[in-house]
Amino acid sequence: MAEERHFETPNGDSHLNEWETGFAEEVAGELEDELRRVTAAYSDQGPVPEWESFTVSPAVSMEMTRIPLPIRREEQIPKVRRVIAHCRQIAIPAALAVLKDADREIPVFSPKESVRNLLAEFEEMMRLAESEVAALENSLLGEDEFNAELAASESAQELALTEVLAAEAVHSELESEAQSLLAAALPVNLSLLGAGAGFKNILPALTQANARLAGALFKTGPLSRQAMGLLPSIQRRVISGLNAAKSSSIRLTPNLANRMFAAQSAKVLAMPAIIGKALVRNQAVRNGTMPECPRRRQHSKNLW
Question: Where are the beta strands (DSSP E) in the chain?
Answer without folding.
Answer: 66-70, 147-151
